[in-house]
Amino acid sequence: MLLSVLDQSPIPEGSSPATALRNTLELAALADRLGYHSYWVAEHHASPFQAGAAPEIMVGQILARTTGIHVGSGGVLLPYYSPFKVAEVFRVLHALYPGRVELGVGKAHLSKDPVVRALRRDAADPAGDDFPAKVAELRSFLVEDDFPDGHPYAGLRPSPRAPGHPGLWVLGSSVSSAEATARAGLSYAYAHFLGPDHTVEAIRRYRECFVPHHVGGRPIGGPRVVLGVGVYCADAEEEANALLAGHRLFRRRMERGIHLPVPSTRQAVEELGPEVALAGDPGPGHPGHDPYVRNAVGTPEQVRDHITALTEAAGVDEVILINSIHDHKARLRCYELVAEAFGLTPRA
C-alpha cells in the first residue's frame, strides 16, 4: 500500500505563519527520506490557522529540496482561477521535475463572503458553481493538449511544451463528487477525514460510475483512489491521545465560529477537561471500535491496523495522511513511526 502526506501547513498557537511554512518544508524533506510516495500541500485563504495560501509556490520549493517523492497540490481551488493559468503553472513544474508533479484540484466552499469576492472579482456570479466545466477545461489544457474543432480554444497550446504531464486528481468528500469524478474519467482523492460516514459508498460509486477517458488510446487517469485519513501516532497510546487533544479543541472552536491557531495539549486539557481532551479510540480488535472514524490514533501498531482495516473495507491502494499537531517535533515523530510500522523503504 502506498502512503503519502497531506500538509495544510497548520499554524501552532504561539508560533507564526512563516514558521508553519518552514515546518512544511522540513516535514516534506523527512517524508522524502522516509520513503513516502507523495507529498501534497493544501490551499487556504485569509486563515489564522493554516499558512498555505499558494500551493504552487510550496510545490516548487519542496521539489527543489527533495529527490524522489512526488509533490503536488491537495488541492488548488479551481473555481477561483483560470484553468489555462493553472495548467501553465503546473506545466512549468513538470518541465523542471518530470514525473514527480501531481495536480489535485478541489471545488472549495463557494459563497459570497469577502474571500470569494476578492478571489473571483471578475466573475459575474462569485458563488456560481462552474467547477465541472473548469475541470474539463483544465483536462484539455493539461492532458489532452487540444480542444475539439470549433471550440474557442481549439489550437491554443499552453506552454512550456514538454513530454508527458502532471498527474491530475479531483478532491472530494461526498458521493456526488465521487460520481462526477468517475464520469470525467479522472483519479479521485476522497477526504475521509472530512466525510467518514460516506467513505465506502463514495468509493463504491466512483468505481461503478467510472468512464475511461482516453488520449492517444490510453486512459488518462483512474480508476484510482487515494484516501485521506487523519493520523495521530506516538510511541504510547496515551501520548497519541494527547497529540489529538489539540485537534479536538481546534474542531470544537471551529464549530463555534472561533478561528484560532492550533492549540496545544495543555490548552485542550484546560478548556475541554482531561476526560474529553484525552479520550481515545480503543483501536481495532477492541469492543466499541469504529473502523470508519476519521482519525487513526495510537501506537504504530494500532495505527497500522486501523489504516489497513479501513483501506480493505473501502478498497483503496493509497492513503494520504494528515494531522494538526501543535508540537512540530511530535508531528515529525508521528510520520517516522508510521513509516516504520508500514515498513517503508527509505530513500538514499
What does this structure look like?
Strands 1-2-3-4-5-6-9-11 form an eight-stranded parallel barrel, surrounded by nine helices. A two-stranded antiparallel ribbon has the order 7-8. α11 crosses α12. α2 links the parallel β2 and β3. The two termini are 20 Å apart. The protein is α/β, with parallel strands linked by helices and 348 residues long.
Brief descriptors of the model:
single chain, 348 residues, alpha/beta, eight-stranded parallel beta barrel, 12 helices, globular
Brief write-up:
With 348 residues, the chain is an alpha/beta fold.
- SSE pattern: EHEHEHEHHEHEHEEEHHHEHEH
Shape, per Cα inertia axes? globular
- Low-confidence segments: 283-292
Computed structural class: alpha/beta
In what order do the strands lie side by side in the largest sheet?
1-2-3-4-5-6-9-11
DSSP, total strands: 11
Radius of gyration: 20 Å
Biggest sheet overview: 8 strands, parallel, barrel
User: What integer is the average pLDDT?
Assistant: 91
